[in-house]
Design a protein that fits this description.
alpha+beta; 3-stranded antiparallel sheet; two-stranded antiparallel sheet; 1 helix; 22% strand; rod-shaped
C-alpha cells in the first residue's frame, strides 16, 4: 500500500516538473522604446500634445508626456496640460 502511494506521488511530481519545464520554455514577448534612439514625429515642449516615436520599426503614440524637444533621453508625464 505504501509503495503504491509513493509511486503515485512520484508520478505526480514527475508530471508537474515536466509541465513547469514546458511553461518556462515559452518565449516571453515584450517590446521597449529607447528614447535615446527613437525618432520623434516632432519636437515636443508641452504636455498637451499627442506625438509618435518610432524605434526598431515600431511606432508608439504618446499622450501627455514631454521630452523637452528631444533633449532628454527619457519622457516625463504630467496630469496637467497647458496649451
Amino acid at each position: 500500500m505504501k509503495m503504491k502511494k509513493f509511486l503515485h506521488l512520484f508520478l505526480i511530481c514527475v508530471f508537474t516538473l515536466i509541465g513547469l519545464e514546458q511553461a518556462n520554455a515559452e518565449d516571453v514577448v515584450y517590446k521597449t522604446l529607447d528614447f535615446a534612439k527613437a525618432s520623434e514625429s516632432k519636437k515636443i515642449y508641452s504636455y498637451a500634445y499627442d506625438w509618435t516615436a518610432t524605434d526598431n520599426g515600431d511606432t508608439w503614440l504618446i499622450h501627455t508626456f514631454n521630452n523637452n524637444g528631444s533633449k532628454w533621453k527619457f519622457i516625463r508625464y504630467s496630469t496637467f496640460a497647458s496649451e
